[in-house]
Design a protein that fits this description.
The complex is a heterodimer of chains A (285) and B (349).
Chain A lengths: L1 H31 L6 H19 L2 H27 L3 H23 L13 E4 L2 E4 H23 L1 H11 L1 H6 L4 H23 L9 H16 L4 H21 L2 H18 L6 H4 L1
Antiparallel strand pairs in A: 1-2
Helix pairs in contact in A: 1-5, 1-8, 1-9, 1-10, 2-3, 2-4, 2-8, 2-9, 3-8, 5-6, 5-8, 6-8, 9-10, 10-11
Chain B lengths: L1 H25 L5 H25 L7 H16 L5 H23 L4 H21 L1 H4 L5 E2 L6 E3 L2 E3 L4 H24 L1 H11 L1 H6 L4 H27 L1 E2 L6 H14 L6 H19 L4 H14 L3 H13 L3 H6 L6 H14 L2
Antiparallel strand pairs in B: 1-4, 2-3
Helix pairs in contact in B: 2-7, 2-8, 2-10, 2-11, 2-12, 3-4, 3-10, 4-10, 7-8, 7-10, 11-12, 11-14
Classes of the chains: A mainly alpha (285), B mainly alpha (349).
Amino acid sequence: MELVVALALNGLVWGLIIALIALGLSIIFGLLDIINLAHGDFFMVGTVLTWFVLEATGNYWLAFLIVPLVGLVLGALVERSVIQPIRGTAALSIVATFGLSIIIQEVVRAGFGAAPKRILPPIEGTIPLFGIEYDYYRIFAAGVSIVAIFGFFVFLHRTKLGTWMRAVRFDRDTALAMGVPARTVYMVTFALGFAMASLGGAVAAPITTVDFQTGVDVLPFCFMAVIIGGLGNLPGTVAAAVLLAVTEGIVTSFTDPTVARIVSLCLMSAVLLARPHGLFTGATR
Amino acid sequence: MKERINRTVLLVVLAFLVAAPWVLPAIGFDYWLDILAEIIIWSLFAASVNLLFGYVGLLSFGQALFFGMGMFGVAIGIAKLGLGFWPALGFGMTVAIGTAAVAGALAVRLTWHYFAIITVVFSLIFYFLALSAKPLTGGDDGTSFSMPAMLEAGGFELSLTDPTVQYFFILSVAAAAYFLKYLIVKSPFGMALMAVRENDVRASLIGLNVYFLRWITFVIAGGFAGLAGCLFALFGRYASATYMFYHVSGEGVVWTIIGGAGTLFGPAVGTALLIVVREELSNIWEHYPILVGLVVILTVIFAPKGLMGFWNALLDRLAPAPADRASGGGRPNGAVDAAAVPAERRTGP
């Protein structure tokens, strides 16, 4: 029972981090119609940047500030150089972002090295929770993710830029006619997606390993959350990420992780085939 | 004109491929025969991606599944079931095509992004299954086997252990498969596929069964990928789950798009180019994938129709087809035409 609780809690924490990353994937897909195969690598860049910040300053908290900012700049650069020229051709976007993924992984392998490294969490210790001793840092990580997700929704619904983003997504031509600078909105959206993924990396760095290949594992999971939540349905994405990770955590406590992964993949195929617009379509439209 | 140039190039390439086992050692490139065999196998895999994406417009990111099925079919058939050469090949093909028939029946109900994603999901499911079914597949380490003879009659034995025999076996199988692809693409069936690619609603309105056409193409493409997997298993004498990961499918897509989707030989060109780049550069520069990624992105931005599209456009400009010449009376392309005439004489037989 204790194992089930621990793994379910781990799933919840991991699900919230994934939700943060998958939200970035979802806005990039919803607004730019880009299937971003490099999104897992944006997360990986976040973990690696965290490692570098820690090496340079010795202060973990600085990483929470610097990493998303660097992500924002990198995202804007990538949008201008790679995404802008091919926007509107979904098939080509898959190929271009696959190329981008190769480049990012190889650059990190060259600069950071091929050996995985571990980062110690900035807060040590455990607290009693539901009858088990649970890591303090993981609860903190869940908190940061929740605040970031909440902040994103506030940004989307309460600021001018956020309103523009929703307007361009709803009807690009009308938004352009009303004077919304669509190109800037595209760039901000992509940059924001990168920043959220890298913030996810900064949060998750002490929980996973820092390795140039972690993105490859994270990417399918994010896609599952986006699909099961419904493409472009942002609250659905968050709910699906948490649901998937908790399910996988609980299944893991009975069998091995590979089988748990197979179970969630089968679940996802069923959702795709039966309800291709996501589990929550009825609730939001 | 354009056709004639392309046919000449094709004949030259074919002649080189047939002569390669003698030519390559003569000029001191012994181990390139193996690389050439590998290129031929992977170009079959790219052809599988191309059949789906280039001709019915379905972008599959899961062709590695059928590649892996063919691979494991052969390896398990020989190592675990004790099958001979031909039965193992047949077993591998049956497994690959059977999987494609079932997976396709589900997958082609979806199109576009959804199709791309469900093919990844299917291939991931079987990737993890192959990883966890260690007793059968060997997981990450894979299954290796020793090569059974292809033909045994009296004291005579023909086996792939002879590198030249192996090369010609791979070459002839691939040539047959490419000829089949040519027949498919040029047939009324191929035209129907392209109609589905261009506009599936119109295609269904003129009476084409869009679902069936997509499904049967999925099965044929699965067969191509499976054949590539069978050949690769025989070539390396082993099978491994790593070849079922979606990165392998992604490489197939990249080769196809770089070479030119929707053209018969584009995928082979893309495969050859990127494998040669890999072989040449990996010794010189450890981080050569950066260059590969750059080439991919630049191709997508500046030559979205791939190298074959670029080549064909170039030929069209240097030597317009007669129909173009007749219709383009007002265009100032006389100078280009004049330059094209001697070119025709030079390449003519």
